[in-house]
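cron nightly-structures :: item 1 of 1
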Amino acid sequence: MAAITRGNAQVHPLTIALRAGVVGLTLATAAIHASLGGMLFMANAAGYTVLAIAMVIPGPVGKWRWLIRLALIGFTAATIGGWVAFGPRFGLAYLDKAIEVALIGVLLIEQWRSDGGPVGVYRRVRGLVGGVDAGTLARNAR
């Protein structure tokens, strides 16, 4: 398989397949939530849709894709947790949870390939948060 080029860099076909899987699974669970109606389900569908779009927006958003990935993992895990605690048990709900578990799995694989796994993400988070320490806040307050 030939790789697709992006600027001067080539994008590996597996990267494209993983991203397509993430977007497809995210939009599938968004469609299920939208079909259920109700404010909470519609808000959940909107959240999934926004995160799916953020996963494919080109340009400067790409440098924050690791954070979007983390947000999508957290959002999906929170949705599963909410269903475990309060959700109704019926066939479509179980299908949706299977899609969401698969989504988290694909996101973790993509995170490992793109961000260097948990250590790479930890370094990025530390770098992001490291700029906001007490000394920086004190200097900026002057």
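cron nightly-structures :: done
The mean pLDDT is 88.
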